[in-house]
Structures are given as structure tokens and as C-alpha cells.
């Protein structure tokens, strides 16, 4: 068997597509993977693009879905409610792989998916949802935003439950995918779009494009 790079060079479009999705699945599962953290772009109320770093929490290949967690009081939640079109960007420098994905976001603040993701959240993660003021609230001086008892420590499990009221899951359903793999002998780029009307409930169509 050749090196991973040699294997990738032999890939056809459908293998690259599968590689993109399996890389995202691994990225969600491991904090050490280059896709664990990505950039999520949305459209602000004035029409300007807005982008921020978020942790990729869960990926469903079948549902074409990428999940991240956020504070429901944050600016992005209002933006996404008004304009659900989003783009994701990931770059894994070690594997020289960039993914750009376009889709639509849904903000969950209750329900089965939301409850499952809250249960899966560590105490350290839950602490983010315990700030007194909403993210982005102007302050006269630096302040972590946590209530006094939680300034220097993680919440206990019972204390962390207060964060539930601020917790939101952003579920994005992907409709387009652009992959770029850098290689000294020539970069490889592929573009795919989800065709919902295709037999069997839809399929990914696409292939090579000039890098
Ligand atoms: C490495 C890193 C990971 C982050 N992960 C998240 C995250 O998972 N969810 C989140 O809401 N914000 C996360 N942030 C903070 C966002 O980038 C952003 O500052 C914050 O969510 C406010 O964005 P907004 O004003 O567009 O809502 C992260 C920032 C960094 C640097």
C-alpha cells in the first residue's frame, strides 16, 4: 500500500466526497483533528458577511448536517433566524485540505437534538453559558462575565444546569461542498452540489474543477 498521499492521488470524485465527509466526522470526534475547529459565516442584518470560529460538535453524513453549540443570546442566533444561509470553512494544515461548505442553519433552543447535545456537554463547556450578560454586551472594564462564585472555577453539575436556558445548537444542512487539496505536483479541487430531486431521495453531483 502506498503513502496516504499516493492513495489520495488515485481518488476519483466520489472517493474525494467520501473523504471530505469522513474527515468532518473525525474532526467532530477529536480535538486534535484539523477540522475540530472551523469558521462559520452568516449574513448580518445590514447584509454584510459575518464570520466566527466555532467548534464542530457533531456531523451526520446521512443528514448532511454539521452541528455547533452557541449561546442563544449571541449575535449569530438573531442573524441566523433572519437569514439562515451559511458557509463553513475548514483548513487542515497537516493534511493540506480545505473544505468550503454552503447550507442553511436552524437554531435549536429545545427538543430532542438540543437536549442530547446539552447532555453531551462537559462542565467546562457549560460554563460558557453562565455569563450574566449576553455575549457582546459592552462593559466599562474587563470582566469574564461569570457570576462571582464561578469566576475561578468550573460549575458543579447542578450549577451548570442554569446554562441550559442560554444554550443553543446550530444545525446546518449542507447543500454545496468545495474541496481543495494542495499538492506540489498540482492542486486538486472538486465541487459538489446536493440534488434533492434525484431518485432515492437525492444525491451529490459534481466533480473536478480547475484549482
Ligand atoms: C477556538 C475558538 C473556538 C470557539 N468556539 C465557539 C463555539 O463553539 N461556539 C460559539 O458560539 N463561539 C465560539 N467561539 C467564539 C466565537 O468565535 C465568537 O467570538 C462568539 O461566538 C461571538 O460570535 P457572534 O457575535 O458572531 O455571535 C470560539 C472562538 C475560538 C477562538
Q: How would you characterize the overall build of this protein?
A:
- There is one protein chain.
- This protein is of the alpha+beta class.
- It has one domain: Electron Transport, Fmn-binding Protein, Chain A (Pnp Oxidase, Chain A, Roll), CATH 2.30.110.
- 23% of the residues lie in helices and 35% in strands.
- The chain has six helices and nine strands; from the N terminus they run H-H-E-E-E-E-H-E-E-H-H-H-E-E-E.
- The protein has helices spanning 4-9, 13-29, 75-82, 112-120, 123-127, 157-160; strands at 37-43, 49-55, 58-60, 65-71, 85-92, 97-108, 167-181, 188-195, 203-209.
- Strands 1, 2, 3, 4, 5, 6, 7, 8 and 9 form a nine-stranded antiparallel sheet that branches.
- A hairpin with a 4-residue loop joins strand 3 (58-60) and strand 4.
- The longest helix is centred in the N-terminal third of the chain and has 17 residues, at 13-29.
- The protein starts with a helix and ends with a strand.
- The model has no long low-confidence stretch (mean pLDDT 96).
- It binds flavin mononucleotide (FMN).
- Flavin mononucleotide is lined by residues 37, 50, 52-55, 68-70, 74-76, 135-136.
Characteristic terms for this protein:
single chain; 211 residues; alpha+beta; Pnp Oxidase, Chain A; nine-stranded antiparallel sheet; 6 helices; binds flavin mononucleotide
Radius of gyration: 19 Å
| SS content category | alpha+beta
CATH topology: Pnp Oxidase, Chain A
Major sheet attributes: 9 strands, antiparallel
For the record, the count of structural domains works out to 1
Task: Write down the overall mean pLDDT.
Answer: 96
Give every kind of bound small molecule, once each. Answer: flavin mononucleotide
What is the fourth-level CATH superfamily? Electron Transport, Fmn-binding Protein, Chain A
From the structure provided, what is the oligomeric state, counting identical versus distinct chains? Answer: single chain
